Amino acid sequence: METTFELDALISNIVTIVVEVGVIAVAFMVLNGIFKRIISGVIKAPALARWQGVATKAQSNLRMLLVVLATLCIIAAIGANLYLMYLGENLPEYTLELIRGIPTQFWIDTGIALAKILGLVIAAAFVLRYVRRLFAFLCARAKAFEGIHANNESIEQFFGTLSRTASTASWLIVLALAAVWLGLPAAVDAAIILVLRLFLIIAVGILIWRALGALIDSADALSKKYVAESRFAGAYERLNSLVPIFRRSIEYVLMVTVATLVILQVEAIASLADWGPRIIRIIGIVFLARLVKELAHYLMEETLLRNVSLTTQQRQRRKTLVPLFRSIVTYAIYFFAGIMILKELGINPTPILAGAGIAGLAVGLGAQNLINDMVSGFFILFEEHFLVGDFIKIGEAEGTVESIDLRTTRVRDNAGRHHIVRNGRIDDLVNYSKEYTNAVVEVGVAYESDLNKVFDVLKATGERLHAENDMVLEATSVKGLDDFGESELLLRTVTRVKPGCHLQVERDLRKRIKDAFDENEIEIPYARRVLIIRNEQDPITE
Q1: CA–CA distance, 135 with 210 (Å, rounded to integer)
Q2: Confidence at residue 542, expressed as pLDDT on a 0 to 100 scale
Q3: What is the pLDDT of residue 531?
Q4: What does the alpha-carbon distance between residue 155 and residue 133 come to, in Å, rounded to a whole number?
Q5: Which domains does the chain have, with CATH numbers?
Q6: Considering the entire predicted model, what is its pTM?
């Protein structure tokens, strides 16, 4: 009998230990589920998608920590129970005695708290169901506004983020109230409140970003719809590239603001929050610099190039100078923006500028070729040796001028090759685009030809060319016999044409001369092979 009693006591003790271990395991599983739900709700926002990997790793580490704590608690519980068994205690009776020692009011308060928590969970689930429906209705109405579909994606993202934020915030509030009602330690309640504050700060920042994104997309779509038919269409099209930059700037400002507010919630790193306003001002400086640059370029082009009363030469001159002015304005704007950024970072720019001046002087003394190129470029622009669009010849580079910078000149030849010539290397320059140029065509005729007739045909051809080709300023002038060749008489013709048009006119005139000579039976000599047949020998070739 005694053996049976001891066996029953051992079995009851083991069952008690198993029940306690199960309760501990279930408690930690519930905690792991709560933390998993919180982290998943926070990182589900599209704006935090880039942190998905970090959040997954943090969740894995947290799960591992809970497993370690649960294991330690289980080991501690088993060890304590084994110690009590060693002392001869009956674990079921000892456990029941501990439970009976808890005041009745505690169980009443716990029951009331659990009932309140259950009611709050049911109410939250019920309310969130209709809140989601309300957000879906508002999303549909917003997408149908003005029949604009370009902003549908941003509107869906905004209301989706709003719905997830409301859901996660509601369950965090339920968790915080549950901790208060259950009388958990103040540290647990404080941790939950901290998580709730951090989540709300991040969620509100994301909501503002989504709302601004939807507003920007809507305003952009409305502008395209109504401004496209107005006289401001050109300006809007020119400045529309600033919309993505404005959107990114707003995004960065919100990110920095949210990060600053999050840092302020943690006392250990709260001092770092002072950098938040500085970074926001730097973002504003960068955006304003880009805005001023685009506006300056637009106003410069509108003022200097859009005037319909400009002559061709004036427009060409301005096309040459506008890129140079644009570069100078861009460098000046970015220079002042850089100085303002240095001041925001707490750096005095004066010593840096002084050092840069000394370094620039030292570099300038060793970079004489660079200075020579820039000085030559300045005089090319100042004296208008050639302009953008002129047809010029510099050494082996012959073609149309595409751009003139202070250091280099870029020429595109007829074969499409792009020549970059240093201004300091421009020694021999031929400009075919000053007032007029001559199309020179030399043609050979046979010695047996009647030169008077040939001259008459050439003059008639030149007159037809003048009448039919707009690039020709004067009829072709036949200069006469230019040379006695081995098998031909070389005649020279000169046609005055518009600047840079000599090659096209030369090709046209050669074709016309060939057709005219064929009509008048005027021979153009060319090399021939003659066969001489001798009676006493086979044919030979000379």
Answers
A1: 14
A2: 45
A3: 67
A4: 15
A5: 279-372 (1.10.287.1260), 386-431 (2.30.30.60), 437-519 (3.30.70.100)
A6: 0.50
